Amino acid sequence: MNTQADTxxxxxxxxxxxxxxxxxxxxxxxxxxxxxxEASGADIITVAIRRVNIGQDPNAPSLxxxxxxxxxxxxxxSAGCYNAKDAIYTLQLGRELLGGHKLCKLEVLGDEKTLFxxxxxTLKAAEVLVKDGFDVMVYCSDDPIQARxxxxxxxxxxxxxxxxxxxxxxxxxxWNLSLIIEQSKVPVLVDAGVGTASDAAIAMxxxxxxxxxxxxxxxxxxxxxxxxxxxxxVESGREAFLAGRMPRKFAASPSSPMAGRVV
Length: 263
Fold this sequence. Notes:
It comes from Undibacterium squillarum. Pfam families: ThiG. Keywords: Cytoplasm, Schiff base, Thiamine biosynthesis, Transferase. This is Thiazole synthase. Catalyzes the rearrangement of 1-deoxy-D-xylulose 5-phosphate (DXP) to produce the thiazole phosphate moiety of thiamine. Sulfur is provided by the thiocarboxylate moiety of the carrier protein ThiS. In vitro, sulfur can be provided by H(2)S. The chain is α/β, with parallel strands linked by helices. 35% of the residues lie in helices and 16% in strands. The chain has a 5-stranded parallel β-sheet. Strands 6-7-8 form a 3-stranded parallel β-sheet. Helix 1 links the parallel strand 3 and strand 4. Helix 2 (84-97) crosses helix 3.
């Protein structure tokens, strides 16, 4: 029996019980954000500094009223940035708003149509941010070479896309993802493209350390129920990975033993 214990997700020296990270945008209101976040069981909540108020506007409702930093680790991200300079500035602003918070999610996009990562600008920004003392989790392409370069720079987690942001297409290239998982010494989290619970389970069965999602929950007909489904999917996928799946075979094998059968 495999009794390997799951010791939690450790990023930048801190351990989290949940391996599901969730976004905070696209919900119909802050109350739904709160309910879905609670249902997900997530410990880390991403916040798009350019789109969500966490103190930039003191006269408007703040996300932190329903997702308090006393309960959750807030992960400021540079969503909506298309070059290294803007991403660096945005994450520096996030650090200021959160009182010197070092953990961040770097995201530099290539264009508005695909939202695919701009890897040259991502690498440039990562190098500056790491030198500036940030603990950088980084959205990237599913290219093992680029992932290794980001790890070598000092990023604390690499986050390859499964498919395009918000597409819900699931994991389109499990082979590249497996190569990144095999080589990486830092956590690997699928970021972007998850559409439903089975996508999250597959990512975890492949050996990912976690999954980050927003649209798959917020865009569901019942976001709160989907958040619960994603929580269970990540947990079951992780258990399946630790258990070790049966080997694939090219022939049938009876479920019941043949020895000692009554003829």
